[in-house]
User: Fold this.
Amino acid sequence: MSNRPQYLRRTRQQWINIALQVLLAIIVVGLIYGAAVNASNNLAKANIASGFRFWNNTAGFDISQALIDYSSSTSTFGRAIWVGLLNTLLVASLGIVLATALGFTIGIARLSRNRLVSHLAGGYVELVRNVPLLLQILFWYNAVLKSLPDLRGSIALPGGAYLNNRGLFFPQPQFGTNFGYVVGALVIGVLATVMLHIWARRRQDRTGEPPRTLTYAFGLIVVLPVLVFFAAGAPLSFSFPEMARFNIRGGTEILPELAALLVALTIYTAAFIAEVVRAGILAVAPGQTEAAQALGLRSGATLRLIVVPQAMRVIVPPLTSQYLNLTKNSSLAVAIGYPDLVQVAGSVLNITGQAVEVIAITMAFYLFISLTTSLLMNLYGYRIRIVER
Amino acid sequence: MAAADRVYLRDAPAKLLPAPVASTGVLGWMRTNLFSSPGNIALTLICVGLVVWIVPSLLRFFIFDAVWSGANREACLPTELQPEPGACWAFVRVWLSYFVYGFYPASERWRVDLFFVLLALGIGWLAWLGAPRRDLGAVYFFIMLPILSFVLLSGVPMLGLADVPTSLWGGILVTIVVATVGIVASLPLGILLALGRRSDMPAVRLFSVAFIEFVRGVPLITVLFMASVMLPLFVPDRFSPDKLMRALIGVALFASAYMAEVVRGGLVSIPRGQYEAAQALALPYWRMMMLVILPQALRVTLPNIVNTFIGLFKDTTLVFIVGIFDFLRTIEAARGDPHWATPVTSVTGYACAAVFYFVCCYGMSRYARNVEARLARAHRR
Assistant:
C-alpha cells in the first residue's frame, strides 16, 4: 500500500490520461521514425544525396527577374533561393500597399449612403470573393496580358512608356553623384517635421493651442529637397526605353507575370479587406458617433478622432491575417511562372531531387513570417486592449 | 348670444396631408439616396457612367455577339459580317463532357452521374435544417457516402463495375471529389484537433497546437508539394498512394487545420456554465462533448464552417499545380486546343469556369447567411 495521502493519489482518469498521452507520443515518434527510415531507403535507392551541401553548388538555371545579381553560370542554388525569396517579398509588399488602398476605398464605399455606390461596391466584393484566385491570376495573365499586342504593335503610353505582351517598359531614373544631397535633405526634412509635430503636441497639451504644422511640414518635406535638388545641379536623368528591331533597349520593365500576379492579388485581397473594414466601422457603436456630434464635432473630426481609432482596434488583427494570406497566396505565382520562392524552389527541387530539404526551406520561410506576425499581433492586442476599471 | 361667444371647436381630426412629393416615391428615394449633396451627385454620375460603360459591352460580348454553335474555330473567328465576335460558347459546348468527366470512359459515365445524385442527396439532407432524421443524414454523408462513392467511381470488378484508374478522372468530377473529401475528412479531424487544443493533457495540446499553427502558417501549395513529392518517400514503395490520393491527403490535412480553428471559436463561445452543468451531472468527457457542448458549438459556428467550405472549394483549384486534372486544368487544356484557337477562346473558357465557381460559392454563402439569420432569430427572445 502506498502511504501517500489520499488527495495526492492520482485518480483512474488521470492514469488513463497519462497513458493516452504516452500512446500519442509513441505514435507520433513512430510515424516520424518510420517516415525517416523509408525516406533514407528510398533516397538511397534513387541515388539522391541528402543534407544541405547543394546550397553552394552552381545553379545553372535562369531566373527571369532578379533583384540581386544572379547569373545561371556562376550563382549558387542558395543565391537562387534568395532571389526567389526577394521576389516573393517584392510582390507581397507591393500587393499589400495596393490592396490596402483599394480595400479601404471599397469598404468605405460599401457603407456609403449613396445606394448606387454601396451596391456597386457590394457587387464587386461578391463577384471577386466567390471566384478562385488561381482562376483570376490565369485570367489576367493568359486572357488579358498575353493578348496585348506584340513588340511591333507596342502601345506607347504617355511619359515614354511602352506596353506590349512582354511587359510594361518605362523610363528608368539615373541618379547623378550629387543626388545623395537631395536624399539627405529629405531625411532631414522628415526628421524635423516629426520633431516639430511632437513639440506642437506637447504645446497643445500644455496650452490647448491646436497644432498648425501643415505649412511647415510642406516646406520641410517638399520645398527643401526641391531647392537642394536644383542647387545640386538637378542630378537626375532618365533612360528611356527605345524600340529596337527585336527587343526594347534601355529603361526598365515590369514582367507580365509580375503584373498579372499583382493585379489579381490586389483585386482579390481588396475584396476581403473591404469586408474587414466594413465590419470594423460597423462595430463602433452608433452612440459614439452621436456623442461626438453632441459635443459639436464636425463629421470629419468625428471620423478621425472617434470612429477610426475605435474601428482600428477591430480592423487591425483580421487585416494582418489578410496580409499574411496575400503573402501566402503569392505562391500561386508558380502557375504563371513568376519566379517567386516556391517557383525557384521547384526548379531547385527538380534539378537536385532533394525534396525534403527544399520543401523544408520553403516552409520555414513562410512559417517564420506567419509566426513573427502573429507574435507581433499578440503584442498589439495586449497594447490596445481596453483597460477596464 | 350663445352662438356669438362660442369658441371654435374642431369636431373631427384634421385631414392628413400627403408627404411632400420630394421625399416619397421613386423621386424621393432618389433624392435621399442618390442626390443628397453635390458630392453625392458627382458619385452617382460617376457610377452611372461606369455601369453604362461596362454593362452593355459585357452583354454584347457574352450574349448578343456570342457564337452559340459551330464545329471548330472557324465559327468564332472575326469575319466580314462580324468583325468583333463575342464569346465562343460553341467551344464550351463541344468540350462540355470533357469539362465534366475528364477522360472517364464514356460507357461508365452513368456512375459519375449517380455519384452526383447521391452527393446532392447527402448535401440536401444535411443542409436542410428541418429535414427528418438529420442524425441518419450525418451517418450517410460521413460514412456511407465515402464508401459508396469509392465503389462507384473507382470500381470493384467483383461487383461488375470495371476499374477506372484515377488518372482518367477529370473536370468537375475531380473538383467535386477533392472538395467533398476535404469536407468529409476535415470536419471530424478539425473537431478532434479543436478539442485537443483545449484539452487538459499537455502532450495532446502541444501536438494539436503544433499541427494547427504549422499548417496554417504555410501556403496550401507547399502542403500539396509536400504531399505529392515527399509522401512517396515516406512510405514503402508498395503502399505509395496514387497522384490524386496524395493531393486528397494534402487537402484534407490543410482543411482540417482551418476547420479546427473555426470549431475552437464555437467551443469558446459556449458559456462555462454549460460545461459545469454537464460535469455536475457526472457526464464523462466524451458524453459531455457529444451531448452538450458540440451540438451547441457546431450550431453557432455553422455559418463559419460553411465559409471555410467556400474557401476549400476555391482552394481545390490548386491541385491543378501538382498536375491533377480538375475543372480549371481541363479548361486550361481545352483552351490550348489548336482547333479552337481564337482570340476569344481563353476568355470564354475562363468565363465558363468563373460562372461555375461563382454559382457554387455564392450559393454556399447565401446559405450561410440564411443560417446566420435563423440563429439570430432563435437567440432573440
